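Q: Could you predict the 3D structure of Pentatricopeptide repeat protein?
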Amino acid sequence: MCTLSIPVSIFTFNIAINCCCHSNRVDYAFSLLATTFKRGFVPDVVTYTTLIRGLLSQNKSQEARLFFANLIKFRQVQPDVVTFNTMIDGLCKTGHADMAFWLFRSMEKCDCEPNTVTYNTIIDSLCKRGLVDDAFNLHSEMMEKCILPNVWTYNIIIQVLCNLNRWEEVGLLLDQMIHDMKISPDVHTFTILVDAYSKSGKLDDAKHIIQIMNERGVYPDIVTYNTLIHAYCSQGQMDEALAMLNTIRSKKIMPDCYTYSILVNAYCRELKLDIAMDIYRNMASDGLSPTVVTHNILLHGLCQLGKSMEALTFFYKIQGLGHKPDIVTYETLLGGLCKNHYVDKALSLFRTIECNGLIPESNTYNIIIRGCLRSKKYDGACKLVDKMVDCGFSSDAATTSVLRHLLLSKAQDPTLVALYQKCLH
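A: Sure. Here are the predicted structure tokens for Pentatricopeptide repeat protein:
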């Protein structure tokens, strides 16, 4: 556009700056800011707000705070409520809640009135820190200032009250929301309630909530149903969980990977691997590709049943299909192989971790070291301890306990004594 002399404006630059920020190239965005000055344009509040959001999205909260402070200090632009909301949200998400609250209280001094979004952000931060009464006070302050709460405001507070089992206050808040404020609960509100009742073992109440949803024309989504399926599985009511899966399909709601993972995990816990495998295979019929979490659940189930070699075969099969393991996958397999006395296989697998672009963690080393110790491969354990220490890790309580137990029966073994000394250091 510039080369062809097509006119550009600050709006054009704002779009380009926003694009760079969304592409995680905030450095390009600031280069464009410099170009706006060179071309004689005056950046507006949208320009600066976009840049602040870009810095925060790349975890550059300190730079964002400095940039925002300079805007105020040098009066480059008058920040509006969107600018403040962006900064407050970023501070809350990066663990600077006190600073966010201070900025929230400073808004009026800067001739900027907080809005519903501002209050929601601060209320959410207070609730996450367990300061529920402060959140309630802020909710009351909103009403006094005629800043109307929305469904999100109520969802935030209802969520934390449910977590604390403060059911009476939940009821009062819902009553205020529906009858006084004329705000209709949304699917998220109802899902919060279904989840809370399910976790408290009140499945009848949870099902009643779903009935109320349907009566009000707010239809449950897959998140709502997943919550209920998880509750059935937690209580061992597997038939009801499977029936709920069929209900989902009858309502033309597609199960997701989490739905299947819940069921697979539940049947693995019940040691019913055949059914778990059948459910796993059914994922493809719903057009779903299993996640690494689903695979890890199945591998753990196989290892729990002592079928660690079958687990290893399954691991190589899914790798061949293009599924990438994570470090939990390896730790699950290593633990299963060592537990079932296939330590050589475990050592061989351990050596392939880095080849697959992963880095062994402290837990990974400790699992394989304990396997070596229990199989009397003390030299191998010694080398692994050296490597673990070089990586900055140390032995955990379980590994040290195994060593102590071995020393009690083989106190004179110099290799074990040397290993124990290394682990202590």
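Q: Anything worth pointing out?
A: The radius of gyration is 28 Å.
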